[in-house]
## 1
Amino acid sequence: MAMCDANIYRYVVYQNFDYLDSLSPIKRSSEIFKLETEALSMDLKKEDEFFGWMFFDNPNKYCDKLFSDCIVDEKTQSIIQEPVIHGSITTVDRAHTLVDYQYILQNGLSSYREKIESEMLKYPGDEYLLAMRDELVAIEKLVLRMQLAVEENSNGCENASKIKTALKQVPFYPARNFLEAIQSVWIIHFLLPVAEHAYYSISLGKFDQYIYPFYQKSLADGMTREEAKRILHNFYKLLNSYSDGACLLNVGPEYNELSELIIECQREFSMPAPILGARISESTPDHIWNMLIDEKLFSRGQPTFYGEDSCAAALVEKGVARDRALGFSNNSCMGIGLAGKEFNSMWGCVFSISAVLEAALNCGKLLHTNLVVPGIEKITNLCELYGAFERSADHLFDICMKSYEARADLSEKTDPDPFVSILTDGCIEKRCDRISGAEYHNVTVECMGMINVSDGICAIDDLVFKNNKYCLEELSEAVKNDFVGYEEIRNDILKCNKYGQNSDADLYAIAVAEILQRVIRKKDHANRKYSPSLHTLTANVNYGKNWGAGYDGRLAYEPFAKNAGPSDRVRKKEPTSLILSAAKLPQHKFFGGQPVDLNFSTEIIRNHKKEIASLISTYFQLGGLQLQVNSMTSELLKDAVNHPEKYNDLVVRIGGYSCYFNWLSEQVKREFIMRTEIEEKNA
Amino acid sequence: MTATIFEIKRFAVHDGDGIRTTVFFKGCPLRCVWCHNPEGLTTAPQTARYAHKCIGCGECKKEGFTPDDCLGEATVLYGKEVTVEELLPILLEDRDFYETSGGGVTLSGGECLMQADFCAELLKELKKEGIRTAVDTCGFISKSALDKVIPYTDVFLYDLKAYDEDIHIKCTGVSNKQILDNIEYLDSLGKAIEIRIPYVPNHNDSQIDKIACFLAPFKNIKKIRVLPYHNYAGSKYEALSLQNTLPDRLPADEEIQRVAEKIKVITNFVVLS
């Protein structure tokens, strides 16, 4: 059971609806936050190293009424919903919060309180400042309750006196040692989702860098490495019982003893959270590579690798000054951000690129809806195709942008977040919410299906424009009918080159990416940064389920290509080809993020660390931003036995020889899985 | 000049140091009972049919069908004629990876030196491009064939299957005299050699001590690798309609470790398994 989740918000609203409805939205937000902190129960366990367990265990009750100021008129509602017609979706994504822990640890929440109070002198009675102050008061009371629980110490915790001292200091005053630093980070980390009512993907930022001075100090004062590890273990246990576990913890690019301890913990504790984000530069030492390239970590999809120089270059492209860009943090999922300076709508817009192509190819008409994009004429060559694609993208993205803006406006007006705004630079001075007060309000625009679309354009260029084998109308008819009765056409499409094989097909992906980044970034205004991205997580499956066939030969309802990877139709995926293809994309202009996924056998992870390290670092040298790894676990191999069609490209290697898993006889497959299981046990 | 090859494998990490691209040449003078690349035995191209991979695309029923058209890759053509000019750009694609990993290009097979003139030409071009080269050979080739590639080869991956001639004949169909001579020849020239010993229980397991004693005096052996026999190539024999000669018994991990340890003690070389 989660320690605390969105039920606490629903419960508080349910219990106090009429009272809350009578308040202004700003006052209401701080009141809800206060009521939530009061509704938490807490526990100090015998073995605890610091204070962490806070629960909400009341029954799941919620009222389905909206606060009266949240009800939107029909016109706004239709603007908000309009992208759905062409398969796109917008959201004001309240998670992915990345606060400036370094500042908090060095200055404490009291320094924010001072700022608020000094602004209040200038603007007495300002509602937003009052709400900010009230939320800090609520936190003070919560910490006081923690202190009382420690004094009571009903479970006989042996560290009670140390914890009591820590809670007198943090989170309001600067941390003085390792324990206090971790205690402080945990309290804030716990409260961020409470304040945002969004219990996922809260980032820990550059943890090994900002904690390191406290670690060093405590070591000098007599703390042992083992004690530090126990404190971190406590921290990891808490992280894993709260939120979705997708919190990213940065290590590097300068690796210190604490980074090493964290990597060691990550391997030993074997828990899903946090996600280790390993920052790679040319000076990443061999022993760190050897720790990071580990079969136990890889089997859990960890770490995620980030290219230090390319991530900074992406921020510069976004408009951040170079010296500031160098101080970036990698955020949960795929963000590259500046801690404490941004509001990150990480799933702000999922933009259906398939719809754009359909409109471009069919005089503005989509194949399965009545929507018509105006001003799109019949096309006869590739150049015209790109022109129509850009106009069509422009029109459809405008619909998305307007929808997002309406949502953001509504969110700021009816559901502000004073606590996160306190921790977002500039909001206290501007006396406003993070939505408009943050230096950057990033709206990540996930270009769903972009690779399928560029493969489709590649096939059209080959079969229609260059070889005149079919006319565009025939192809569209085939796609519209999910290729039923048009198998010949589909086979010809499948034989065309596809992105991901370091072939000419990549050129189409580059062209499409350039158009999209132009269309998307044109919409920037005020603090809004519409950030192009190719980051699907597993949403490529669901979005695929809701869309018809594609010009790349993808059948209706099949998944779109995942992340910046190739479509499932690509027959052979060698890692070097994929890396060369992905690196050709204008990655820095897709600063919303674009991971590439690579899968390795345990044998390679164990015996060829140097080769994997070379593969990854070459990718980053070529401009890649992010690389996700996995290993062929016995679980994956079992799935491959049951669903061979999903694993046509799965290569297994043993000894000096490698082959496709599907080529093996059933008996050999069983043997191979058994061997893998043994390896996993021995890892 | 052309050669017949049956595969190009990228991100090859088992064919020499670093990340490599390996070209598999078709045709082999040996007939090892445990051969895991039976598609590389004959020089002539062969079509294989992996029935279980058929997705029913129907392409093979059309006139003018070539295995390239098969969308499920159920029909595979092993054996393609290529020129040096065709191969070179493909082999240079991963140059960035060779540089960061200390890798390069490996010529393998079959027995690549059955097409030694072509190999020499290809290796020469690769050296011009500054690429590190390796030749994986069974050693059953004339000195003159070796001489052609020696100037352009950085390391020889040299397979050694048995020391006793009768055992070698039994396992591979040919005498090992030339093979043993050629190792001595390469060593005398100061060429870097990596010895590879397939370990096949009930076939060459009796040969380990003798092989190790034979190798011990050489000066230019950089390492010895013991390759545990596996039977993963079974489906290839079936697909090629060849008689499956693969032995049944697989070596246990501990057995391999013991063998590697033994060779290390006798030869004092770096031994990997």
## 2
Amino acid sequence: MPAENKKKKIRTYPANVEAEKSVLGAFLIDRRAVNEELNRLTEDDFSQPAHKSIFVAMRELYLESHPIDSVSVADKMRLKGTLEDAGDFPYLSALASSIPSAAGCKYYVDILKREGLLRALLEVSKDIAEDVYTSEDGDESLSYAQQRILSVTQSKERSSLVRVGEIVDEVMHKIEEQHANPDAAKGLMTGFSNLDYVVNGLQPSDLVILAARPGVGKTAFALNIATNIALRDENKNILIFSLEMASGQLVQRMLCSIAGVENSSIAKSKLEMEEFVSLNAARQQLWKSHIYVDQTTLQTPGDILAKCRRFMIENKCEIDLIIIDYMQLMTYPGKESRQQEVAEISRNMKLLAKEINTPVIVLSQMSRSAEINKDKPQLHDLRDSGSIEQDADIVAFLYKEKDQDPNDTIVELLIEKFRNGQTGNLAFEWHGSNFRFVPADRSRIPAFRRSAARKAAASESSSQEGGES
Amino acid sequence: MKYCVQEGEILLFVTNKHKTEGIVKDLGAESIEKDDQGAPFLKGSDLFISLSHKGDVVALAVSAKSVGVDVEDTSVPRNVERLSKLFHTSERPEDLYAFYRVWTAKEAEGKRQRTGITSEILRQETPSGKYFDWGDYLICVMGEGEVRVIEEA
């Protein structure tokens, strides 16, 4: 290896002073360069304080529709008191005559954008390093680091001007899609017709709590929503955080529900040819889908938020739905009681939905008191779990009676909180053999169960009116 | 060689940026380069050169001695009284056209000296230059000799 190649590269601060001079010089001599390129820049794209103040003066002149040349810029800077520090009139004059023409201005602006981005990253890296040296919480520091990096990405995106021609097709496509499918404008449809009718689709930043006792079918219900959405639009990005079940098991459940094949047939290795065909068709559909599964156990809200941010940055895309199975398996270190811990988790789940701007469905295991309770679950059954009720936009309970007749496959979905509408209960038929819920008519809920629900709701509202704290 | 610069003569080309390269060749030079101060010089020729741009208009002055040129668009309205304070002299141009005459002269003199406008040039009384009107544009040339104007639009 040649000796010079062994030398370490000298580290230089990301800046290109000559390119900065060329851009400012081009603005001084050619209005077209100003019209085409000035809006792409901010003062942060210039490394030299003098160049920053010259650029700021130019931008003000531009916004006031005044000419931009050495005299007008000098005049503006004199009024602002920045002229002397920036080298006075001679420096501006030299800038104007330092370039042969304004040709190549776009190229120099590209250089400034690149160097500006590198400087922003360097500044953010310094802050992150500073935070790391003083941090006592690795997760918090990771979250801080990702947020700062994301802020650089976002400001980069914000500052770039896009020609209307480049986005008009995308907008037109959305309009056509909405026209063909009016539901698209309503929110994210779950694919359960009865649920969609009541809630009108899940809205971005909605926190949906789906609670049930063990074994009622929380996971299956959420997976059904995921596959319903993915089968309707394979480009929807759905992230499932499974803290309990292995990803293989989840996928097998999804295969069964899509193919309509019984899980027991797979377990017993007794599959008919038709079932193989159905499974293969389901495999194709899942293969094309954009469902992602993370099976890490004991995650904190910070872990999940970090993974979502990373997903968006790496894939340069939005997330359409997040499912977390289930809340009680999450941890939040440093809290004195489990109640405080869950309160903090639920608050963070709402923050997650807001920051990622997507619906988040969090499954919740019912508290022990609800298992003992023979009546239908109610909101106060969640109260042991801190502030879930306050943070959630929708709270729904999947319910079947403990001693329900095995032939009675009806499972109720009790919507006990709905920030944007009426509460109520819906009926589903549970096909447990292939993990599939199918909307059913409410009349199939036995009458005595419906009256019990009304009674429970009435007692709930009267206790609230009674000033229960 | 299409153009020959006589002794005691300044050639002033009023042209556009697309023609500049061809004019340089017609003067028998290779190209326009910049020295350490950023001032232009003709590679492959002993002639002095000065350039000024405003929008599409390019003024290019060539001479056997040091020369400077500046072009400005006089149709751009300005607050003359306020702008005149930028010049560190007692000169107070009466109107916009007079202002542009002072301004182009100082710019052209800075280019002739190959230093750009310095504090000294701002302080000094403006030397007299040779002025040419070209539509709304005012061109000032600083240097010794008669100016021959060649339009290559």
